[in-house]
């Protein structure tokens, strides 16, 4: 009898979520350090290229993992735009005020100060020094979806003056 342990086959590797964001960031080596030191991430994989930039890395934040690497324009992977993003990475934390302050002190640009939102969450939004838009949040209370919808519509109407 042999002890032949074949890894389980499935749609995703064992221990990972089914949707795995991959982001391209400028100055990827420093970005991994920022996500580790500021957000408390655990670097699971890091493959450095000969130029010191990261070819591929995986970082665990809480129960989720995301992948990142340096821009590779030949493959269509470019860094974030100078302003704005088409997405926000929301990271649920115990203390969004502390994480937000730590991010700003490490060079992040505050976009929306930490505050209590109509969704029942306490949250703040910043752009990290590597171009990604992050929201750090904590869910404080459940709000009925109809109440959230009404508050969201009222909030968006405020900008229509």
From TrEMBL:
<protein>
    <submittedName>
        <fullName>VOC family protein</fullName>
    </submittedName>
</protein>
<dbReference type="InterPro" id="IPR004360">
    <property type="entry name" value="Glyas_Fos-R_dOase_dom"/>
</dbReference>
<dbReference type="Pfam" id="PF00903">
    <property type="entry name" value="Glyoxalase"/>
</dbReference>
<dbReference type="InterPro" id="IPR029068">
    <property type="entry name" value="Glyas_Bleomycin-R_OHBP_Dase"/>
</dbReference>
<dbReference type="InterPro" id="IPR037523">
    <property type="entry name" value="VOC_core"/>
</dbReference>
<feature type="domain" description="VOC">
    <location>
        <begin position="15"/>
        <end position="139"/>
    </location>
</feature>
